[in-house]
Amino acid sequence: MDKKTLRLKYKKLRETLSEKSIDEMSLQIANQALKLPIWDKTYYHIFLPISSKKEVNTEYLLHILQGKDKSIVISKADFSSGEMQHFLMQENTVLKTSEYGIPEPISGIKLSPEIIDVVFVPLLAFDQNGHRIGYGKGFYDRFLEKCSSKSLFIGLSFFEPEPKIMFESTDVPLNFCVTPEKIFDFKNIRLSLYD
Q1: pLDDT at 194 over 60
Q2: Which residues form a coiled coil (predicted)?
């Protein structure tokens, strides 16, 4: 199935989800994420959900990170350049919802992608090899490309994987993907793709 068809399929699937089921599955995803071998790191990048697009509610993950006293990084998207700026989330960080429905920091301490240890990645769909489909703007692929080779990329999904997604050379694969039911581990697959 091509990317365009998959995007339509998963947007339609998301539309069927109630607020209650989104909340319940988001909590399950956060609980599953606790089993990941990632909690000894320092800098964690998290996306703040676009509620109109029925994305995974990362509030539960945010609470886990705060409870573990981790440094949390959030982003601001620049649609004219296609790049994201990354900011340290602090107690006094003021968020404003952009015209695209994305909660973003107004200002703050800017951080370089190279120092980020773990990135929780939004997606519409993913496959059994760790490839993901986003909304097609390429923001995350450009961002992940700039991260350290040691950074870990964790997808969050309400749905199970597709068998295979056609990917391009600019697509950056995931290390893991967390669903309400299980964790998919792509570490070995990812290494074999780049060996």
Answers
A1: no
A2: none
Q: What is the pLDDT of residues 53-104, one digit of tens each?
A: 999 999 999 999 999 999 999 999 998 888 999 999 999 999 999 988 899 9
3-state helix, strand, coil in the chain (%, to 5): 30, 25, 45
Q: What is the pLDDT of residues 140-155, one digit of tens each?
A: 999 999 999 999 999 9
Does the annotation flag 132 for ligand binding?
Answer: yes
Burial 29-45 (b: 16+ CB within 10 A, else e): bbebbeeeebeebebbb
Write down all domains in the chain, each with its CATH number in brackets: 3-194 (3.40.50.10420)
139 annotated to a ligand binding site: yes
Instruction: Establish whether 102 is an annotated binding residue.
Output: no
Q: How far apart are CA 152 and CA 97, in angstroms?
A: 27
